[in-house]
Write a structure and sequence with these properties.
Order of helices and strands: EEEEEEHHHHH
Shape: globular
Largest sheet: 4 strands, antiparallel
Strand content: 5-15%
Number of helices: 5
Helix content: 25-40%
Strand order of the largest sheet: 3-4-5-6
Structural class: alpha+beta
Radius of gyration: 19 Å
Length: about 150
C-alpha cells in the first residue's frame, strides 16, 4: 500500500498474509528524515539496528539498538520484553493483552481508542478497493467525521 499523509509524506506498507510461502512476522523497517530502523531478519549475527542523524555522522553507520535501549525504551517495555518473548509477534502480543487487561480492570485507559483503531484499519481496507480499481488513489475516510454527522 502506498499512501500520502495530509502533509504530503509518502508511506509504503507491505503486508502479505495470503502467500503460501514462508514469511517473517517480525521484520520491520521504518525510515524518516532524521532516522531509520531495521529489525533483525533472523540471519546469523543479525541485530535490530537504528540510524540517527544526531548520533551517526556517517550515513552508512548503524547502531545496535540494544546499546541505546536503556536511554529510549520505557521501563515497562524493557521489563515486558523478557516476560513476553514467547507471547508471539516478537513479544508484541504480550503488550496488547496486558493493555486490554489493565483497561478492563480500570487500572489504565485503553491506549488505542476507536478512532486510532480505525486509523490503522481503514487504509488497509481502502487499499483493497484501490486494487479493484487498478491502483487508483482513493481517499481514506476519517471516522471522526462520522461522529460529527450524528
Amino acid at each position: 500500500m502506498l499512501c500520502k499523509t495530509a502533509k504530503e509524506a509518502l508511506i509504503k506498507i507491505r503486508v502479505d498474509m495470503v502467500s503460501d510461502r514462508p514469511h517473517s512476522m517480525v521484520n520491520y523497517q521504518l525510515q524518516g528524515t532524521d532516522g531509520c530502523y531495521e529489525s533483525a531478519r533472523g540471519g546469523p549475527g543479525d541485530i535490530n539496528k537504528i540510524w540517527l542523524r544526531s548520533r551517526c555522522p556517517n550515513p552508512n553507520t548503524w547502531i545496535d539498538l540494544s546499546t541505546i535501549r536503556e536511554e529510549f525504551m520505557p521501563e515497562s517495555w524493557r521489563v515486558g520484553m523478557e516476560k513476553g518473548k514467547n507471547a508471539g509477534h516478537g513479544g508484541g502480543d504480550y503488550f496488547e493483552v496486558l493493555d486490554f487487561i489493565n483497561a478492563i480492570q480500570g487500572k489504565a485507559p485503553c491506549p488505542i481508542g476507536i478512532h486510532e483503531s480505525m486509523d490503522m484499519t481503514l487504509p488497509g481496507l481502502v487499499s483493497q478497493q484501490s486494487i479493484l480499481k487498478k491502483g487508483a488513489w482513493l481517499a481514506v475516510p476519517d471516522s471522526r467525521e462520522w461522529v460529527k454527522e450524528m
